[in-house]
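re: ur question from yesterday

yeah so i grabbed the chain u mentioned. its 224 aa long if i counted rite. heres the sequnce exactly as i have it in my notes:
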Amino acid sequence: MKILIIEDEYKLLEAIEQFLLSEKFVVEKATDYSTAAQKALIYDYDCILLDISLPDGSGLKILEEMKREGKTGNVIIISAKNSLDDKVTGLDLGADDYLTKPFHLSELYARIKAVLRRKNLDGSAVFTLGNSTLSFNERLLLVNSIDLKLNRKEFDMLAFFVTNKNRLVTKEALAEHVWGDSFDLADSFDFVYSQVKNLRKKLKSSNSDIAIENVYGVGYKLTT
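ran it thru and got these structure tokens back, copy pasting raw so excuse formatting
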């Protein structure tokens, strides 16, 4: 799962980033309006944490642009302003939640999980396909009730496939979503092919009903 943090308070940004990394999220960040707007409009995220008071613009303007472009980023506003007008405006523009600073990281985490459940899994944190059950909160895959051990990237890839079930997932989208900004440093997609190959091998050896098909020259598709 990939999260974009838009926040100009560096200590808070670092605290949120380290906490989310410890919870196995892929994290990208932006500290100013122009960088934040570019990332939010170009890339796809499971959740965006948005400070509406940025040094060179308003986070509400980013929401306006996202709404105009038809982008849904599962946005949680995090703001020092406890303003009813800002809250109503943000929610009207498409934000999913509003959290006033200061807040506990555990509360933020609970809000993120709630947003992901509502948007990606119709309110559920568990996905079942045949004999296989994927628990997003516990980061577990059970096949015939037996824990199938996946490394961090394998789980993140499978989660991305599951939330895009029956849709074409390009190798570019998969790499950018699972590896985040570090993908830009890669010279090829060999690391993606290798991880997908390992994941498919584990699914097949465990007799999982989850199948990831190759779409030649383009990417992959999880089918039912």
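noticed a couple things. Residues 126-223 form a domain with the Arc Repressor Mutant, subunit A fold (CATH 1.10.10.10). also The chain has eight helices and 14 strands.
anyway ttyl
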